[in-house]
Amino acid sequence: MKLMVIGGGGREHAIIRALKQNPRVEAIYALPGNAGMEGDAILVPIGAKDIPAQVEFAKTHGIDFAVVAPDDPLVLGAVDALTEAGIPCFGPKKNAALIEGSKVFAKDLMARYHIPTAACRVFTDLDSALSYAETAPLPQVIKADGLALGKGVIIAETREDAKKALHEMMEDKIFGDSGSQVVMEEFLTGPEVSVLAFTDGKTIRPMVSSMDHKRAHDGDTGLNTGGMGTVAPNPYYSPEIAQVCMDTIFRPTIDAMAKEGRPFAGCLYFGLMLTPQGPKVIEYNCRFGDPETQVVLPLLESDLLTIMEACANGTLDQVEVRFAHKHACCVVLASEGYPTHYEKGYPVTLPEEPEDSCIYIAGAARKDGRLVTNGGRVLGAVAVADTLPQAIDRAYALADSVHFDNAYCRRDIGQRALAAGKEQ
Ligand code: AMP
Ligand code: GLY
């Protein structure tokens, strides 16, 4: 089989490595991929948002199955276009991807189907939002309606900060049209858990849980980033909590989407907060998380391609989705200064990958024959082990054996999970 994976980061590298394990796979094309994937995929210089070119490529190269990984092409309708062209595809159609594409849609869905989430108000005009900010309790959570590169959420500790954020989103349009509507939410507290789930629109099979580390610096300080590291499983996510999430969140969401005429097939990402009142949805994403995928897929014992085909065919109830009872840790190596200002173009030296470890490249290019850094997040060093401390130690040992100038990583990935594990 010839496969095509749309996207170009560490998440896509992890997906490609897992797909490659199926002996039916002859070739995997990455659109556009990145130079760090050269050993695993054939790179095709077609951008993740260039849907007409993706369809044309799939038709002319005899692609048997496509995986659309990032949010942008999903929200823009890549799966619809590929499906119309007769290419079987993993990922939700445009009308289902709206669950991530519009926070207003997602909040409204949850309200109508009684799915637990933070209470909220939606505003389409600046003046009403500003007057609400005068009286609403602090801190205030302000979210741009549409996609905003993971940066569209502001937690304002003061009314001044809240008003500044509202001006920036609704007047200055720092997130473009994504800020035409804003959601102002109740501030929730509790441990956060990411749960990715395979679904064909009817059956839902949650994957192993994980914990992201979104802030740039140790001790969860600094700016929000795309994610500086992950561990799986998440120790806060007990079997009892998993059952509550299945009954009150996962199943109701899948059923609600089907009922709305927007059946969701693909990977649905539940960003959850385990509040004192029970698990609540912080966000839905219509895709695999990054860097959650880098710790979840290495623990998958079943065959990824078979599962993805079943999601596309509506036969997920007939396939096995089994995870190893082990632990995984991913340490992201970024360029110093990420997520704001950083340099690119430094040569990268990679070590051999020891057993049960791997390096997923997120941002690299080829220059004069050498692999060089080409993004804020450069790679994820991942290790799988029987215990969490071993997984953390091995992931750091691997990260420390990678070299490029100005490399930066948090030194405390997994420490919160370790402490939580000890409490329980
Ligand atoms: P998001 O981009 O929606 O994942 O939000 C980024 C981060 O903001 C989340 O990981 C949470 O830590 C935080 N956050 C979002 N919504 C809330 C909320 N209602 N209460 C508290 N924290 C929140
Ligand atoms: N790691 C968070 C996300 O993928 O949105």
Q: Number of helical segments?
A: 13
Largest sheet descriptor: 6 strands, antiparallel
Rg (C-alpha, Å): 21 Å
Which stretches of 5+ consecutive residues score pLDDT under 50?
none
- Provide the β-strand percentage band: 25-35%
Mean pLDDT value: 96
Roughly how much helix do the residues carry, as a percent range? 25-40%
Small molecules in complex: adenosine monophosphate, glycine
Total strands: the figure is: 23
Q: What is the end-to-end distance?
A: 46 Å
Structural class: alpha+beta
Global morphology: globular
EC number: 6.3.4.13
Keywords: ATP-binding, Ligase, Manganese, Metal-binding, Nucleotide-binding, Purine biosynthesis
Protein name: Phosphoribosylamine--glycine ligase
Pathway: Purine metabolism; IMP biosynthesis via de novo pathway; N(1)-(5-phospho-D-ribosyl)glycinamide from 5-phospho-alpha-D-ribose 1-diphosphate: step 2/2
Secondary structure elements and pairings:
Elements lengths: L1 E6 L2 H11 L6 E6 L9 E2 L7 H10 L4 E4 L2 H6 L1 H7 L4 E2 L3 H8 L1 H10 L7 E4 L2 H10 L4 E5 L8 E4 L2 H13 L10 E4 L6 E8 L4 E3 L4 E2 L2 E3 L3 E4 L4 E4 L6 H21 L6 E10 L2 E8 L7 H4 L7 H10 L13 E9 L21 E5 L2 E4 L2 E4 L3 E9 L2 H13 L6 E2 L6 H9 L1
Parallel strand pairs: 1-2, 1-4, 2-3, 4-5
Antiparallel strand pairs: 6-9, 7-8, 7-9, 10-11, 10-16, 12-15, 13-14, 15-18, 16-17, 18-22, 18-23, 19-22, 20-21
The chain binds adenosine monophosphate and glycine (GLY).
Describe this protein's structure:
By secondary structure, this protein is an alpha+beta fold. Helices cover 31% and strands 26% of the residues. It has 13 helices and 23 strands. The chain is globular. The mean pLDDT is 96. The structure holds adenosine monophosphate (AMP) and glycine. Adenosine monophosphate binds next to strand 8 and strand 17.
